[in-house]
Amino acid sequence: NAGVTQTPKFRILKIGQSMTLQCTQDMNHNYMYWYRQDPGMGLKLIYYSVGAGITDKGEVPNGYNVSRSTTEDFPLRLELAAPSQTSVYFCASRSSGGYQETQYFGPGTRLLVL
Amino acid sequence: KQEVTQIPAALSVPEGENLVLNCSFTDSAIYNLQWFRQDPGKGLTSLLLIQSSQREQTSGRLNASLDKSSGRSTLYIAASQPGDSATYLCAVPTNFGNEKLTFGTGTRLTIIP
Questions:
Q1: What is the CB neighbour count within 10 angstroms for residue B69?
Q2: Most CB atoms within 10 A, among A63, B6, B52, B74?
Q3: Edge-to-edge, what's the strand order for the sheet holding A64-66?
Q4: Binary contact (B104, A107; C-beta < 8 A)
Q5: pLDDT number for residue A101
Q6: pLDDT score recorded for residue B94
Q7: From CA A46, how far away is CA A31, in angstroms rounded?
Q8: Phi, psi at residue A90, to the nearest 5°?
């Protein structure tokens, strides 16, 4: 299993540009998540999904959009990039089992908005 | 609102020493607590998950304890090695369910050879 994969690894955007961060998992997990990690700030949840066709906002959703058309894929869309969106973005997935289930993380996408 | 704190933010210890990392949380009504490891430039990897009914969980040289009543957890690393150098984050469920996690800001650990 490849686990959770993310593309691209690194991207530079100009202010106002748009892009989609891709996330795919091959573990047949129902739950998927997008986080951003700023230096010294821990992980903040942007959006999450509990299954195909179901998404919900996390703690910091402004400026982002998501869709979940398949179990495997959970892309994150930035419509109008702003310098405040410079961060490292992590995708994660989890089985919908009980309270012993953990999240599995991708390697991250480093985004710089200039 | 659940808040998770990890102090200190950074820690350096000589190789071979035993060490303890701390995690505190404000809402004790949790189902579990997890410890993750993050290497520089990489994603998070789960180390240990302690159920609320457990007091301890062990994996090799790692031992995590949970005291719900005091809102604290510790991660004990025995006989530290340079390969243990990483950032360690703890996380607890954000809400009554287990769908979302609230993370601490982590402790960056450096093991000095």
A1: 7
A2: B6
A3: A4-7, A19-25, A76-78, A64-66
A4: no
A5: 84
A6: 87
A7: 14
A8: -120, 135
